[in-house]
Amino acid sequence: MVPENQTQFTDFIFLLFSENLDQEGPLFVLFLNMYLVTVVGNLLIMLAVGFDSHLHTPMYFLLSNLSFVDTCLVTTTVPKMLASFWTQNKHITYADCIAQMFFFMLFAALDNFLLTSMAYDRFVAICHPLRYTVIMSSWFCHFLVILSWSLAFLNAFLHSVMLTRLSFCTNHKIQHFFCDLPEIMKLSCSDTLINYIVMYFASGLLGIFPLMGILYSYVQIASSIIKIPSAQGKYKAFSTCGSHLCIVSLYYGTVLGVYFTSSFTNISWKSTIVSAIYAVVTPMLNPFIYTLRNKDIKTSLRRLMSRKTSSQ
Fold it and tell me: What crossing angle do the helices spanning 138-163 and 193-227 adopt, rounded to 10°?
Protein backbone atom coordinates (compact mmCIF):
# COMPACT_ATOMS: atom_id res chain seq x y z
CA MET A 1 0.00 0.00 0.00
CA VAL A 2 1.55 3.30 -1.07
CA PRO A 3 0.89 6.33 1.16
CA GLU A 4 -1.79 8.72 -0.10
CA ASN A 5 -0.94 11.99 -1.84
CA GLN A 6 2.53 10.75 -2.80
CA THR A 7 2.37 9.93 -6.47
CA GLN A 8 6.13 10.45 -6.90
CA PHE A 9 7.14 8.40 -3.87
CA THR A 10 8.38 4.94 -4.87
CA ASP A 11 11.17 3.78 -2.60
CA PHE A 12 13.58 4.38 0.26
CA ILE A 13 17.37 4.52 0.06
CA PHE A 14 19.66 2.74 2.54
CA LEU A 15 22.77 4.60 3.68
CA LEU A 16 24.08 1.35 5.22
CA PHE A 17 27.23 1.73 7.33
CA SER A 18 29.28 4.19 5.31
CA GLU A 19 29.16 6.20 2.11
CA ASN A 20 32.77 5.18 1.41
CA LEU A 21 32.59 2.72 -1.49
CA ASP A 22 36.04 1.30 -0.65
CA GLN A 23 34.63 -0.20 2.55
CA GLU A 24 31.74 -1.99 0.89
CA GLY A 25 33.84 -4.86 -0.51
CA PRO A 26 35.24 -5.93 2.89
CA LEU A 27 31.81 -5.43 4.49
CA PHE A 28 30.22 -7.66 1.83
CA VAL A 29 32.71 -10.46 2.57
CA LEU A 30 32.29 -10.02 6.34
CA PHE A 31 28.51 -10.16 6.38
CA LEU A 32 28.35 -12.93 3.80
CA ASN A 33 30.55 -15.13 5.99
CA MET A 34 28.56 -14.22 9.09
CA TYR A 35 25.30 -15.06 7.33
CA LEU A 36 26.56 -18.42 6.10
CA VAL A 37 27.90 -19.33 9.55
CA THR A 38 24.58 -18.34 11.14
CA VAL A 39 22.47 -20.37 8.72
CA VAL A 40 24.70 -23.46 8.81
CA GLY A 41 25.10 -23.36 12.60
CA ASN A 42 21.40 -23.04 13.31
CA LEU A 43 20.50 -25.65 10.69
CA LEU A 44 22.87 -28.11 12.36
CA ILE A 45 21.13 -27.56 15.69
CA MET A 46 17.71 -28.10 14.09
CA LEU A 47 18.94 -31.27 12.38
CA ALA A 48 20.50 -32.58 15.58
CA VAL A 49 17.31 -32.01 17.56
CA GLY A 50 15.08 -33.34 14.80
CA PHE A 51 16.95 -36.59 14.11
CA ASP A 52 18.18 -37.53 17.59
CA SER A 53 15.48 -38.98 19.81
CA HIS A 54 17.62 -38.26 22.88
CA LEU A 55 17.03 -34.56 22.26
CA HIS A 56 13.25 -34.78 22.02
CA THR A 57 12.83 -32.87 25.27
CA PRO A 58 11.18 -29.51 26.06
CA MET A 59 14.52 -27.69 26.34
CA TYR A 60 15.75 -28.81 22.93
CA PHE A 61 12.33 -28.37 21.35
CA LEU A 62 12.43 -24.69 22.35
CA LEU A 63 16.07 -24.47 21.26
CA SER A 64 15.27 -25.77 17.78
CA ASN A 65 12.50 -23.18 17.48
CA LEU A 66 14.95 -20.48 18.56
CA SER A 67 17.41 -21.65 15.90
CA PHE A 68 14.70 -21.51 13.25
CA VAL A 69 13.69 -17.99 14.30
CA ASP A 70 17.32 -16.81 14.32
CA THR A 71 17.79 -18.15 10.79
CA CYS A 72 14.69 -16.29 9.64
CA LEU A 73 15.77 -13.13 11.47
CA VAL A 74 19.09 -12.81 9.63
CA THR A 75 17.50 -13.85 6.34
CA THR A 76 15.10 -10.92 6.68
CA THR A 77 17.88 -8.32 6.62
CA VAL A 78 21.25 -9.66 5.47
CA PRO A 79 20.50 -10.84 1.87
CA LYS A 80 19.08 -7.43 0.96
CA MET A 81 22.12 -5.74 2.50
CA LEU A 82 24.48 -8.03 0.58
CA ALA A 83 22.62 -7.29 -2.64
CA SER A 84 22.98 -3.56 -1.96
CA PHE A 85 26.74 -3.94 -1.51
CA TRP A 86 27.09 -6.12 -4.61
CA THR A 87 24.93 -4.17 -7.06
CA GLN A 88 25.41 -0.68 -5.57
CA ASN A 89 21.61 -0.39 -5.70
CA LYS A 90 20.57 0.72 -2.23
CA HIS A 91 16.92 1.33 -3.08
CA ILE A 92 14.03 -0.61 -1.57
CA THR A 93 10.41 -0.16 -2.55
CA TYR A 94 7.86 1.05 -0.05
CA ALA A 95 6.02 -2.30 -0.06
CA ASP A 96 9.25 -4.30 0.36
CA CYS A 97 10.31 -2.00 3.19
CA ILE A 98 7.04 -2.55 5.06
CA ALA A 99 7.36 -6.31 4.53
CA GLN A 100 10.96 -6.36 5.75
CA MET A 101 10.03 -4.30 8.81
CA PHE A 102 7.09 -6.63 9.57
CA PHE A 103 9.15 -9.82 9.43
CA PHE A 104 12.04 -8.29 11.39
CA MET A 105 9.70 -7.25 14.21
CA LEU A 106 7.98 -10.65 14.06
CA PHE A 107 11.18 -12.68 14.47
CA ALA A 108 12.80 -10.26 16.94
CA ALA A 109 9.75 -10.52 19.21
CA LEU A 110 9.75 -14.31 18.80
CA ASP A 111 13.37 -14.37 19.97
CA ASN A 112 12.29 -12.53 23.09
CA PHE A 113 9.33 -14.81 23.85
CA LEU A 114 11.26 -18.02 23.18
CA LEU A 115 14.09 -16.94 25.48
CA THR A 116 11.48 -16.31 28.16
CA SER A 117 9.96 -19.77 27.59
CA MET A 118 13.41 -21.34 27.83
CA ALA A 119 14.06 -19.51 31.11
CA TYR A 120 10.80 -20.91 32.50
CA ASP A 121 11.83 -24.38 31.32
CA ARG A 122 15.12 -24.11 33.26
CA PHE A 123 13.25 -22.75 36.30
CA VAL A 124 10.96 -25.78 36.37
CA ALA A 125 13.83 -28.21 35.72
CA ILE A 126 15.95 -26.92 38.62
CA CYS A 127 13.35 -25.69 41.13
CA HIS A 128 10.68 -28.38 40.54
CA PRO A 129 12.54 -31.36 39.07
CA LEU A 130 10.02 -33.98 40.23
CA ARG A 131 7.17 -32.17 38.46
CA TYR A 132 9.17 -31.27 35.35
CA THR A 133 7.66 -33.84 32.98
CA VAL A 134 4.15 -32.97 34.16
CA ILE A 135 4.51 -29.19 33.88
CA MET A 136 6.60 -29.08 30.70
CA SER A 137 4.41 -31.49 28.79
CA SER A 138 4.36 -31.68 25.01
CA TRP A 139 1.08 -29.78 24.67
CA PHE A 140 2.30 -27.01 27.02
CA CYS A 141 5.53 -26.57 25.01
CA HIS A 142 3.54 -26.30 21.79
CA PHE A 143 1.19 -23.86 23.53
CA LEU A 144 4.15 -21.64 24.48
CA VAL A 145 5.40 -21.63 20.89
CA ILE A 146 1.94 -20.90 19.44
CA LEU A 147 1.38 -18.13 21.99
CA SER A 148 4.77 -16.64 21.11
CA TRP A 149 3.96 -16.65 17.39
CA SER A 150 0.52 -15.12 18.01
CA LEU A 151 1.79 -12.25 20.17
CA ALA A 152 4.72 -11.54 17.85
CA PHE A 153 2.44 -11.52 14.79
CA LEU A 154 -0.08 -9.16 16.40
CA ASN A 155 2.70 -6.78 17.45
CA ALA A 156 4.30 -6.70 13.98
CA PHE A 157 0.95 -6.41 12.22
CA LEU A 158 -0.16 -3.52 14.45
CA HIS A 159 2.99 -1.49 13.77
CA SER A 160 2.85 -2.23 10.04
CA VAL A 161 -0.75 -1.07 9.76
CA MET A 162 0.01 2.04 11.83
CA LEU A 163 2.90 2.88 9.51
CA THR A 164 0.70 2.87 6.41
CA ARG A 165 -1.15 5.96 7.70
CA LEU A 166 2.03 8.06 7.54
CA SER A 167 3.15 10.22 4.61
CA PHE A 168 6.72 10.57 3.34
CA CYS A 169 7.63 13.76 1.52
CA THR A 170 11.21 14.54 0.53
CA ASN A 171 13.65 12.67 2.76
CA HIS A 172 13.71 8.97 1.83
CA LYS A 173 17.25 8.11 3.06
CA ILE A 174 17.34 5.52 5.85
CA GLN A 175 20.42 5.71 8.08
CA HIS A 176 20.42 1.95 8.51
CA PHE A 177 20.98 -1.34 6.70
CA PHE A 178 17.34 -2.45 6.98
CA CYS A 179 13.88 -0.94 7.44
CA ASP A 180 13.77 -0.43 11.18
CA LEU A 181 10.54 1.06 12.55
CA PRO A 182 12.05 4.05 14.45
CA GLU A 183 14.22 5.00 11.48
CA ILE A 184 11.25 4.89 9.11
CA MET A 185 9.13 7.05 11.39
CA LYS A 186 11.88 9.67 11.53
CA LEU A 187 11.43 10.21 7.77
CA SER A 188 7.71 10.86 7.92
CA CYS A 189 6.28 14.33 7.41
CA SER A 190 3.03 13.28 9.14
CA ASP A 191 2.14 13.49 12.82
CA THR A 192 3.81 10.42 14.34
CA LEU A 193 2.73 10.96 17.96
CA ILE A 194 0.26 8.08 17.98
CA ASN A 195 2.80 5.80 16.29
CA TYR A 196 5.42 6.59 18.92
CA ILE A 197 2.93 6.07 21.74
CA VAL A 198 1.95 2.67 20.35
CA MET A 199 5.60 1.75 19.71
CA TYR A 200 6.80 2.62 23.23
CA PHE A 201 3.76 1.04 24.86
CA ALA A 202 4.12 -2.20 22.90
CA SER A 203 7.90 -2.28 23.40
CA GLY A 204 7.49 -1.76 27.12
CA LEU A 205 4.73 -4.33 27.44
CA LEU A 206 6.38 -7.00 25.30
CA GLY A 207 9.87 -6.23 26.56
CA ILE A 208 9.55 -5.57 30.29
CA PHE A 209 7.25 -8.46 31.18
CA PRO A 210 9.36 -11.16 29.46
CA LEU A 211 12.50 -9.67 31.01
CA MET A 212 10.86 -9.68 34.45
CA GLY A 213 9.90 -13.32 33.89
CA ILE A 214 13.48 -14.22 32.97
CA LEU A 215 14.91 -12.34 35.97
CA TYR A 216 12.41 -13.98 38.33
CA SER A 217 13.25 -17.42 36.94
CA TYR A 218 16.98 -16.93 37.44
CA VAL A 219 16.56 -15.49 40.93
CA GLN A 220 14.66 -18.65 41.88
CA ILE A 221 17.24 -20.80 40.08
CA ALA A 222 20.12 -19.09 41.92
CA SER A 223 18.42 -19.53 45.30
CA SER A 224 17.86 -23.23 44.55
CA ILE A 225 21.47 -23.75 43.42
CA ILE A 226 22.79 -22.11 46.60
CA LYS A 227 20.88 -24.68 48.68
CA ILE A 228 22.61 -27.61 46.93
CA PRO A 229 25.21 -28.94 49.40
CA SER A 230 27.88 -30.30 47.01
CA ALA A 231 30.00 -28.18 44.68
CA GLN A 232 29.59 -30.78 41.93
CA GLY A 233 25.83 -30.60 42.25
CA LYS A 234 25.90 -26.82 42.04
CA TYR A 235 28.05 -26.95 38.92
CA LYS A 236 25.80 -29.53 37.27
CA ALA A 237 22.68 -27.47 38.02
CA PHE A 238 24.26 -24.25 36.76
CA SER A 239 25.61 -25.91 33.60
CA THR A 240 22.07 -26.80 32.53
CA CYS A 241 21.19 -23.10 32.23
CA GLY A 242 24.62 -21.56 31.55
CA SER A 243 24.20 -21.49 27.76
CA HIS A 244 20.77 -19.90 27.98
CA LEU A 245 22.04 -17.32 30.46
CA CYS A 246 24.83 -16.37 28.04
CA ILE A 247 22.36 -15.91 25.17
CA VAL A 248 19.95 -13.88 27.34
CA SER A 249 22.80 -11.60 28.43
CA LEU A 250 23.95 -11.15 24.84
CA TYR A 251 20.42 -10.55 23.54
CA TYR A 252 19.32 -8.00 26.12
CA GLY A 253 22.76 -6.41 26.26
CA THR A 254 22.68 -5.60 22.56
CA VAL A 255 19.00 -4.55 22.65
CA LEU A 256 19.75 -2.09 25.46
CA GLY A 257 22.83 -1.00 23.51
CA VAL A 258 20.65 -0.16 20.50
CA TYR A 259 18.23 1.77 22.70
CA PHE A 260 20.82 3.78 24.58
CA THR A 261 22.94 4.43 21.49
CA SER A 262 19.98 5.78 19.52
CA SER A 263 18.69 7.81 22.49
CA PHE A 264 21.87 9.40 23.73
CA THR A 265 24.01 9.95 20.65
CA ASN A 266 23.55 11.89 17.45
CA ILE A 267 26.02 9.74 15.52
CA SER A 268 23.74 7.52 13.43
CA TRP A 269 26.39 5.05 12.30
CA LYS A 270 27.06 4.04 15.92
CA SER A 271 23.43 2.99 16.30
CA THR A 272 23.66 1.11 12.99
CA ILE A 273 26.72 -0.83 14.16
CA VAL A 274 25.10 -1.75 17.48
CA SER A 275 21.97 -2.83 15.58
CA ALA A 276 24.15 -5.08 13.42
CA ILE A 277 25.46 -6.76 16.57
CA TYR A 278 21.91 -7.34 17.76
CA ALA A 279 20.42 -8.40 14.42
CA VAL A 280 23.34 -10.33 12.88
CA VAL A 281 26.09 -11.15 15.38
CA THR A 282 23.87 -12.45 18.19
CA PRO A 283 22.04 -15.03 16.00
CA MET A 284 25.46 -16.14 14.70
CA LEU A 285 26.86 -16.69 18.21
CA ASN A 286 23.87 -18.66 19.52
CA PRO A 287 24.85 -21.98 17.85
CA PHE A 288 28.44 -21.64 19.09
CA ILE A 289 27.31 -20.95 22.64
CA TYR A 290 25.08 -24.02 22.68
CA THR A 291 27.41 -26.41 20.84
CA LEU A 292 30.53 -25.41 22.79
CA ARG A 293 28.83 -25.68 26.19
CA ASN A 294 26.43 -28.53 25.52
CA LYS A 295 27.64 -32.11 25.44
CA ASP A 296 24.29 -33.47 24.20
CA ILE A 297 24.33 -31.27 21.11
CA LYS A 298 27.95 -32.15 20.31
CA THR A 299 27.25 -35.86 20.78
CA SER A 300 24.19 -35.65 18.56
CA LEU A 301 26.12 -33.82 15.84
CA ARG A 302 28.82 -36.52 15.93
CA ARG A 303 26.14 -39.21 15.56
CA LEU A 304 24.60 -37.28 12.67
CA MET A 305 27.96 -36.90 10.90
CA SER A 306 28.92 -40.55 11.45
CA ARG A 307 25.51 -41.68 10.17
CA LYS A 308 25.96 -39.61 7.03
CA THR A 309 29.49 -40.95 6.53
CA SER A 310 28.46 -44.60 6.98
CA SER A 311 25.54 -44.18 4.55
CA GLN A 312 27.95 -43.05 1.85
Answer: 160
* Domain residue spans of the chain: 11-311
- N-to-C CA span, the chain: 51
Which of 156, 114, 295, 127 minimizes the C-alpha distance to 222?
127
Provide the residue count of the chain: 312
What are the residue ranges of helices labelled H in the chain? Answer: 24-51, 58-87, 94-127, 132-135, 138-163, 181-186, 193-227, 231-264, 268-276, 282-293, 295-311
Q: Rounded to whole angstroms, how far apart are CA atoms 119 and 212?
A: 11
Whether the Cβ atoms of residue 178 and residue 279 lie closer than 8 Å to each other: yes
11-311 belongs to CATH 1.20.1070.10: yes
For CA atoms 57, 59, 63, 69, give the dihedral sign: positive
Which pLDDT band holds residue 9 (cuts at 50, 70, 90)? Answer: low
Task: Sheet with 173-174: list strands edge to edge.
Answer: 91-93, 11-14, 173-174
**pLDDT 10s digits, 226-268:** 887 877 777 777 777 777 788 888 788 777 766 655 555 554 5
Distance separating alpha carbons of residues 148 and 145, to the nearest angstrom:
5
Say what the alpha-carbon torsion angle 82, 259, 211, 241 is, to the nearest 10 degrees.
50
What Rg do the C-alpha atoms of the chain give, in angstroms? 21
Identify the DSSP state of 47. H
